[in-house]
Amino acid sequence: MKLSETAWPEAESMDTDLAVLPVGSTEQHGPHAPLGTDVLTAEAVAEAGVAAHDEEVVLAPPIPVGVAEEHRHFAGTLWVSEDAFRAYVRETVESLVSHGWDRVVVVNGHGGNVAPLRELCARLTRDGTACAVPFTWFDAVDTETIEMGHGGPLETSLLRHVHPELVDESAFDTAAADGADSWGEWQSGTNLAYDTVEFSTNGTVGDPNESSEELGEELVAAASDQLSELLTAIAEREWTRRED
Amino acid sequence: MKLSETAWPEAESMDTDLAVLPVGSTEQHGPHAPLGTDVLTAEAVAEAGVAAHDEEVVLAPPIPVGVAEEHRHFAGTLWVSEDAFRAYVRETVESLVSHGWDRVVVVNGHGGNVAPLRELCARLTRDGTACAVPFTWFDAVDTETIEMGHGGPLETSLLRHVHPELVDESAFDTAAADGADSWGEWQSGTNLAYDTVEFSTNGTVGDPNESSEELGEELVAAASDQLSELLTAIAEREWTRRED
Amino acid sequence: MKLSETAWPEAESMDTDLAVLPVGSTEQHGPHAPLGTDVLTAEAVAEAGVAAHDEEVVLAPPIPVGVAEEHRHFAGTLWVSEDAFRAYVRETVESLVSHGWDRVVVVNGHGGNVAPLRELCARLTRDGTACAVPFTWFDAVDTETIEMGHGGPLETSLLRHVHPELVDESAFDTAAADGADSWGEWQSGTNLAYDTVEFSTNGTVGDPNESSEELGEELVAAASDQLSELLTAIAEREWTRRED
Amino acid sequence: MKLSETAWPEAESMDTDLAVLPVGSTEQHGPHAPLGTDVLTAEAVAEAGVAAHDEEVVLAPPIPVGVAEEHRHFAGTLWVSEDAFRAYVRETVESLVSHGWDRVVVVNGHGGNVAPLRELCARLTRDGTACAVPFTWFDAVDTETIEMGHGGPLETSLLRHVHPELVDESAFDTAAADGADSWGEWQSGTNLAYDTVEFSTNGTVGDPNESSEELGEELVAAASDQLSELLTAIAEREWTRRED
Amino acid sequence: MKLSETAWPEAESMDTDLAVLPVGSTEQHGPHAPLGTDVLTAEAVAEAGVAAHDEEVVLAPPIPVGVAEEHRHFAGTLWVSEDAFRAYVRETVESLVSHGWDRVVVVNGHGGNVAPLRELCARLTRDGTACAVPFTWFDAVDTETIEMGHGGPLETSLLRHVHPELVDESAFDTAAADGADSWGEWQSGTNLAYDTVEFSTNGTVGDPNESSEELGEELVAAASDQLSELLTAIAEREWTRRED
Amino acid sequence: MKLSETAWPEAESMDTDLAVLPVGSTEQHGPHAPLGTDVLTAEAVAEAGVAAHDEEVVLAPPIPVGVAEEHRHFAGTLWVSEDAFRAYVRETVESLVSHGWDRVVVVNGHGGNVAPLRELCARLTRDGTACAVPFTWFDAVDTETIEMGHGGPLETSLLRHVHPELVDESAFDTAAADGADSWGEWQSGTNLAYDTVEFSTNGTVGDPNESSEELGEELVAAASDQLSELLTAIAEREWTRRED
């Protein structure tokens, strides 16, 4: 059930304590993929996962701006600080909880959100506010043979499946030529680079020529399966909400 | 230009310092209108206004959760505190500014956001960070003959024009019967009611039977004209960005 | 009972749960009215209202500095941020509550305090901390024929009644000549001006020549009646304090 | 010059960079002295000191609520947290600075404010915002022979001089009988008591029978001399305001 | 029991509700004493006091950085703001409490920590979180004949006893020659100097030539006795932990 | 140069802009290893790395309490929130910077600190405050054949080398028997467990029987080499400190 498209009496009639909150980012994804990539992919995976799930699940609207300062040198990148992001997502989850939907999966499409989401979901769960867990789709699918990158094969494939009109295939070669092969600038187990521009001229990491609509379809299927399994695990997990 | 659908090189090529950021709310709008009403209407007005404007304008993605605690007794209402909202919107605006789009209109669709937006836009403007101004569409159109209400004639009309599939006309009579005639519970110039449930059984204020698709069309046209005029005024306004 | 002038045993003997907290501002009011206008008027109305009320009411000392950054271009204007103001007033109210005076009217004399007071009184009331409500005297009296302005007929009249020695009638003509007719600089339903200096050369809005001591007397009487009615409404209002 | 009673053009004409901000507290002072003692005494000393000083000094309105949680068990005591107090006073000082009055003495009448004022004045001074220094009148006068106490000889004397109508001499014996001889409950150089009620039944420390109007007059004279000397020292002190 | 050197099962077996948390500072102490003086002395006193005490006491690791901005002009001085310090120490105490050790003495070695520690221990105790009290060793020992100073006889003596290898006796004469005789720059009962450099060329206050290893031994003995007495007082003190 | 053991004139004479700040944690490490493991190992690696480095490096004192709430069910575990930790470490780094040591490696010994340190070092570096980078020793050494665990072979080996007296070999079998084989409870790429107790009965992960003093010696050598290489990289890195 998409919350945004539902009137409140129908929301009230939902017989579930499960909710999914998509969070993404609006940030550069190379010359070939749109700034909305991370929120569009999070939304697509969330919708597919909720649809694939056997039980009713509340689907909240996607939060479009995340922790993406690392991409700020590329025009159109939007971001907020970790503090503002954590507060905004946490309180949104708390409002879901107020209606009895206190087992919440935050479906995430952006690497920069991973650590802040882990921090806030731990807080919510330990406090007895919500049984909350982050789910980052590209950490859930088996991608041993292909590295995640940025605007690389994985993301571009998924986009080609769900929003083909937003992918510019004519820019793939440029993307690959001026992009990077791998993420970051590593020394002694730490990444010296805080900003993408330090290691990728056009913001791309990986070669989008390796993407395909078919791979995208497989990724959505795999991710939605994983999300559904996680929803089952969360539904059954032992956890007690704290009485005020 | 819709930022979410654009790759960064195109965003970089925009020859403008104007941006529009839609902000709404996901909250009850009676038994006949969807929880997403305020973000959908803000988005529709923002898109129409940007389209109607002569000059290029950057259009950011809509922020879906606002200050709506007053509606929390109705299922599906999402909200964040004023502090979280101000921080999230302010920093999103600051990221727009980082790309040179430092004259920003925040297009708003929700009454509860008005005061927080005024506070934060004042802060941004006085600090020399952004020339920012809130625009609440229903405060901009001439609605002398029809009160704003909540899920009332104005909002319902606008929705019937832009998202007719989300309006349930069969619930109009119920909405009117158990709704309220006017907003709040006033004594000595102050509203004693902090929550909608104190004065409206089903969350509606006003009679949606008075709505029409035609009125909705007129409202979008009027609001987009007003927004375009405001963009012109902001573009020409004397204001100096503070050097760091 | 004026708290400041009372020893604690007498305060303890008060048989009431009603308290009044005056808050004002120290800010420019044109060349003819003192910087303390808003706190002096709030205090005068609060005292008159408490005196007019049938039941015992605790009267706290007036808070003299509010949210008045908009007047900062005029010498002597003092202000704090909204955050500092909300925290200071909220905690002062909480200390009133600790003594059992948990139904509190915040009597306000300044437009810039209205939104912050609404926000914090809502917070206190929803949290079950206090049944708190703001009362802005010039929003409570019927002033259809005269606009509020700033240092205009209303405020100047009230001051001429309660502190005639602080009003400089010889500056009325100057005030009117270099002042503004109405507040702000409006476009598309939004006020483009964040600062008074943008639309009023000397800070005045309205013509103090239209003021009179008689009107001031009527205003105090009307405002104190309104305040007394509000105290009755608050005393009878259904509300439950949250147990810790 | 009392800011509250002055119109802005006169404030603008002040040829000084010196300002005095009185801060007090509204808190129990035994059965014989009013809750407003600390703000009334701070105000009296501030006015006398400004009057005694040779040069022009801006006098801000007194801030009536301070850090007084230790007295909360006695009815009528008001207080805010250290954080709220520091923020409110700091920003009030910053607004004084905005008009060029950047050498500020905070005249204090309450022991609980001493540490927070030291912390914030240090912050302001080190940041180059204001040359700010706290002045607590009873730390400035030579009172070797009489301990400060609380509602004791010193405070009661000063009150008897400046507000005799607020002192209840008939309660002196009660105050002394059920009060404490000295402040706190000491062990190993630390005070184990965080609240006055732990060591004084009626909140008094010291015997008000030892007070006199004559001593009050001497105290005001001594304190205003000390304040005037401090103003001279601050005016001459080497300190540079930081350019923004 | 030194927590850092103990495995958790032994910690669990402790039959006590008493804990000691040493806090110090890393800051200049003249040319003859190390930057770690205040944390080393706090640690030494804490260890001696715990050893001298009859009952079991948990000893937490020393916190090495405190509120020492006043010494920042001398190389190597580390410091954090009062806010960061209060939060860090408070939460460390809260974690001690979580294990049942809810009567906590914070053993302090630095003057700049005194006011922040008092503020946070009051907060913890009043909130029913911990029965917490600060103990500053040089306020606990009888030093009527010798002023505390900074890197003066007292601190230097204590160091010569516990860490003689870190004291440079050859620099004593320099320390005394370019140091100050007393702390601060006083006028009207207030210290005009916020920074040590304003009154001491090399950061020393007092003459370390007056120090001796013997005095150091006496100081540790006296301080540990005082600490042990305080632990007894705290153990017996009436105080109730608040149930969550 | 160990800052704690140095007097300020020697600190001032350091000809370097490099500093190392060890941060650890005081938390359970199974029945065989001390609560101080993570701060002791961080300190040992930091000292060895500074010693191994060719150029002068300032060594700050180790911060003993980190983000370790996940271990709170085991007695003696200390922790602070992420916010308090970030603030405390950030400001400590800022104080190092104030003396010109603005290239800082934060040497970390605890997994729970990794994300907060990354966040704050990014902030410091992007703001132009410090060129700061975290170094977590067990992420820097090549441990392909042995998983990190918790109180497992790696940590226990390192401890056996640097603090053999604190390791209880007699508890190794118990540790292994009631410990876990791997960290966490994984589903769909996310760890459902927020607390160690959910998957390890005694807090251990991995078998300490696989540890050895020899491996510990190798680990310190490898980690100090890595740290030295990182110091070289940071020293040479292009980065500009922001002028205030």
CATH superfamily of chain A: Creatininase
State the order of secondary-structure elements of chain A, H for helix, E for strand: HEHEHEHEHHHEEH
Q: What structural category characterises the helix and strand content of chain A? A: alpha/beta
Q: Order of strands side by side in the largest beta sheet of chain A?
A: 2-1-3-4
Taking the alpha carbons of the first and last residues of chain A, their distance comes to 28 Å
Task: Please identify the top-level CATH class of chain A.
Answer: Alpha Beta
Question: How many structural domains of chain A?
Answer: 1
Report on the structure:
- 6 copies of one chain form a homohexamer.
- Chain A has 244 residues and is an alpha/beta fold.
- Chain A has a single domain (3-236), classed as Creatininase (Rossmann fold, 3-Layer(aba) Sandwich), CATH 3.40.50.
- Helices cover 39% and strands 10% of the residues of chain A.
- Chain A has 8 helices and 6 strands, in the order H-E-H-E-H-E-H-E-H-H-H-E-E-H.
- In chain A, the strands form 2 sheets. Chain A has a 4-stranded parallel sheet with strand order 2-1-3-4, with helices on both faces. Chain A has a two-stranded antiparallel ribbon with strand order 5-6.
- In chain A, helix 2 (37-52) packs across helix 6, helix 2 (37-52) crosses helix 8 (213-236) and helix 6 packs across helix 8.
- The radius of gyration of chain A is 18 Å and the shape is globular.
- Chains in contact: A-B, A-F, B-C, C-D, D-E, E-F.
- Chains A and B meet through helix 1 and helix 3 of A and helix 1 and helix 3 of B.
